[in-house]
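Morning, I've got a small favour to ask if you have a moment. I'm working through a protein record and want to make sense of it properly. The fold is given in discrete form, as structure tokens running alongside the sequence. Can you walk me through what the tokens say about the fold? Thanks so much in advance, here it is:
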Amino acid sequence: MTPSKPLPVIAIHGGAGTMSRNSISAAQNTAYHAALQDILRAAQQLLAGGGSALDAVSLAVDLLEDCPLFNAGHGSVFTHDETHELDAAVMDGATLHAGAVACVSRVRRPLRAARAVMEHSEHVLLVGAGAEAFAEGLGLEMVSPDYFSTDARRAQLHRALSTDQAQLDHDGAALVFRQSAADTAPLDEGRKFGTVGAVALDAHGNLAAATSTGGMTNKRPGRVGDTPLIGAGTYADNRTAAVSCTGTGEMFIRTAAAYDICARMAYGGLSLDAAAQQVVMDVLPAMGGRGGLIAVDAQGKLSLPFNTEGMYRGWARVGEAPQTAIFR
């Protein structure tokens, strides 16, 4: 008897960290769940129609970039110089082809530019003005940099400038990073600056991953995190898993976190969840790394671990109701 193929599945995230469970309002909670549900249903429908994992993650991240609730595309955070620098990456698990852009400020949908790099160039990563010229030459939609701005993000920058600190895409009430007794006030939405991402398995057994971010507020111009670095924040290989990360990017870079999960599966024989839990709960915390990730393996099994108080996330298998969550 031939074993049945796993159901196609999409998983998405809108960043790790989140505000405290005690400070999130009912309206905020509803807005995030509704946005995640809408995006999942669109990608789920694409997969149900036989669409590819690559198209599903691309669609999901397109929609996440368009939603100002998340730190990617419209609604991205500001650099120290009150500018925007956006990063994105995509990887096809069937071919190991990948594309990425970094430090772009005029491409409306950075993930589309990353996919264009993968499909229409011999390169993997393009940055800055060169990436923008490449995207514009292919007819991708360009915008004025202020398209990405929102009043809420500008206010967040000004608060950060008052302390002259870069604020990362996590909160201070992390599961494995407890606040000191002198700093017990819950952090609000102004401290949640996340990445967005998607991973998928399609009906043909192919995997794909995509990630996009505005970075961290008050960051030094020119700073690049893990998102556009293949193997750090984004990775996909049909033999193992597709992974999209969110958190303290420098630590995900130093541990090659996304690839490390696939390597632990390929060389150590670990299950997806065991590998992901080791990286998120052991490897990253040992270096001061906070955040989480979403991953799906070749059998359609999911793992969505995080070491912060919460992570905006959701998943949907074809034929099943989409599921969303913020806290544990």
